[in-house]
Amino acid sequence: MAEWSSRYPYTDNNISIYLPASEGVYRLIYKKGEKYYVFYVGQSDDLQRRLNEHLSYTEPNECIKRYLQNFNCLFKFIEISLQFERDRIEEEEIEKYKPPCNN
User: What InterPro entries does the entry give (predicted)?
Assistant: First the structure.
């Protein structure tokens, strides 16, 4: 199975450099002090497109918008092509981290 990527600062530039336009699961993260916290877990059939959508002014999730406006955020991802595996990993990640923006 594939492995999670490194953490990258969540910027337009880093999305185009590091994110593939392929299927996978991702974590949105912020840093407070020396600790990192997951605030959202999602999946997509096009990771690059989806993470760009979160940065757009049309992002419907107000919680994600708040974190992106108030913190220096990062992202991690894992490429997974099969839908049932993406569903399983997304569910496991949400259960593990209980991200506030997935409520």
Answer: GIY-YIG_endonuc, GIY-YIG_endonuc_sf
